[in-house]
Amino acid sequence: MNSPDNIPFKSFIQIQRDINTPIYLQIANQFIQAISQGKISPGTKLLGTRALSELLNVHRNTITAAYDELFAQGWVEIKPNKGTFIASLLPLQNQKETETFHYPKQTGYSFKQSILLDSPFEHTNCEFILNDGTPDIRLTQFEDLSRFYSSNMKRKSNRSKMGYYNQEGSEYFKEQMLNYLQSSRALKINKNNLLISRSVEMSLYIIAEILLSAEDTVVVADLSYFAANMIFQKSGSKIKTIPIELDGIDVDALEDLCRKQKIRMLYITPHHHYPTTVSLSAHKRMRILQLATQYGFIIVEDDHDYDFQFDKQPLLPMATSDQDGMIIYVGSFGKSLAPGFRTSFMVAPENLMIEMRKHLGIIDRQGDILMEQALGEMIEEGAIHRHLKKSRKVYKERRDLMAELLELELAEAIDFQIPTGGLAFWIQWKETFSLLKLSQIASQNNLFIPKTLLYQQKNVQAMRIGFGNLSPEEMIKSVAILKKSYQRTQY
């Protein structure tokens, strides 16, 4: 196909006049695709600008501009008094059978695939949705968020901070976070013990990357946070489970396991255990710390919903009692705010923090200075405290209403304890039936129950049901659908 008359230009050049891409660039790009697919061979002479412009029904200057673009990129060579040719140095490509270009559906190479990271999250069009205990973003103080963020965008002193990467984050925000953590959690730390990340999951990923190796053993409760389990398993570590009791994990079982084998890490959510919502008792906290020092395992304390405590003062983190540097404390900040304003933090000894900052610098190099500045001001001016105080009152009312509804509609079918904090209930079904079938029936009735809320094992028939995201009206309708769906599973 060395003659320009033999090139089927119109078969691979399709001009779209209703899009923003200039026509000359459309032509140039489609030439490049045709060359890459072997439809035009290296050294082939192209039609002159006048002939091609008439063929494609465009202005001659458009073709000239397209050829100039191809020449500038090295796809064609222009020979004086001879014309324009496909660059002869380009490698010869096998012509593809398809007439039009389609992006490939599959790679042309093999790669390692992991079922461990298969997303457990589902999507739905149902009007009512149960989740595992997330806040209601409709309660967010959008006016405060907008005011603080907007003022930081307009502040000239902040503009220089936007021009460079800074995985260390805002020093001002770190100072405010230090004050916040010291006052709310009694943590005696300095800024070298604190690292800001995007989410708890990112924090756990960094922890696993630094501290875990293949064949290490990570201990979790036999019911635990699925995302954390996925992260630890992805590192190559082995997961060992121990029972969860009414006052937290079975510490006797933990000690027995330590005697039998080397434990690298213990992952716990002691304030409100995920998913059962129980709190780890004081004597168990002390025993776990003693075991960590004795057997040398790391404790990752995930305090994901510390801010939501209703009936009494929240329990102080285990990290406040750690004198031997065995605990990495992970938590969320701004969980009651809109998702884009939430962040996470890690607290650990300085030598580990140095390594963590290196890894954060790779996966989140740019940081988010403006958002952190805005959050820092919300702490300093008390907006966060005011928002939490208001939202806790609303969530307590919703918790009490959910308890009333569950007792009224499902008392004969379930057992549950009213949680002292957090935004979810742990309900245990008295009879054995398919929870997946329950979820499917509920979905048909406009209530979505994700699979991640369903816990069905040999001795467990339970669900974690969030109430924070539901208004009273939504809660009433959701529980009514749940009852109706349960009754249908009994037929």
Structure description:
This protein is of the alpha/beta class and 491 residues long. Helix content is 41%, strand content 14%. It is built from 16 helices and 17 strands. It has helices at 9-12, 23-36, 49-56, 60-73, 142-154, 156-159, 171-185, 200-211, 226-234, 251-260, 282-295, 350-363, 369-380, 383-410, 435-444, 472-489, and strands spanning 76-79, 83-86, 128-129, 194-197, 217-221, 238-242, 244-245, 248-249, 265-268, 298-303, 327-333, 343-347, 414-416, 424-429, 447-448, 454-456, 461-466. The strands form 5 sheets. Strands 4-12-11-10-9-5-6 form a 7-stranded mixed sheet, sandwiched between helices. A 4-stranded antiparallel sheet has the order 13-14-17-16, with helices on one face. The longest helix has 28 residues, at 383-410. In the C-terminal section; belongs to the class-I pyridoxal-phosphate-dependent aminotransferase family. Keywords: DNA-binding, Pyridoxal phosphate, Transcription, Transcription regulation. InterPro entries: Aminotransferase_I/II_large, HTH_trans_reg/aminotransferase, PyrdxlP-dep_Trfase, PyrdxlP-dep_Trfase_major, Tscrpt_reg_HTH_GntR, WH-like_DNA-bd_sf, WH_DNA-bd_sf. It comes from Sphingobacterium cellulitidis.
